[in-house]
């Protein structure tokens, strides 16, 4: 479970950083709304990540899942 925590933390940090970069010129309320959506997405991804970790205890499948989702989110 430590690997899943690390992967989720990395994914959330990357998402928050991307949101911060994209929202730097927008008013604070819009930026905070975006952060809220990212946190909601993080919760959803955590559930999916737990499923991948149970299916593949090595964490390779979860890592691939996180990489794909991070790419999808930041595009």
Compact summary:
By secondary structure, the protein is mostly helical.
Structural commentary:
The protein is mainly α. It has one domain. It is built from three helices and no strands. Helix 1 (2-22) packs antiparallel against helix 2 (28-55), helix 1 (2-22) packs parallel to helix 3 and helix 2 packs antiparallel against helix 3 (60-74). The longest helix is centred in the middle third of the chain and has 28 residues, at 28-55.
Give short descriptive properties of this protein.
75 residues, single chain, mainly alpha, 3 helices
| Average pLDDT, all residues | 76
What's the shape? elongated
How much is the radius of gyration in Å?
13 Å
Approximate strand percentage: under 5%
| Biggest sheet details | none
Please trace the helix and strand order, writing H or E for each element.
HHH
SS class: mainly alpha
Helix-strand layout with pairing:
Layout: H1 2-22, H2 28-55, H3 60-74
Helix pairs in contact: 1-2, 1-3, 2-3
């Amino acid at each position: 479970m430590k690997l899943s925590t690390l992967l989720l933390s990395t994914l959330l940090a990357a998402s928050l950083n991307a949101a911060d970069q994209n929202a730097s010129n927008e008013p604070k309320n819009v930026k905070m709304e975006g952060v809220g959506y990212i946190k909601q997405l993080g919760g959803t991804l955590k559930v999916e990540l737990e499923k991948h970790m149970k299916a593949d205890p090595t964490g390779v499948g979860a890592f691939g899942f996180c990489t794909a989702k991070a790419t999808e989110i930041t595009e």
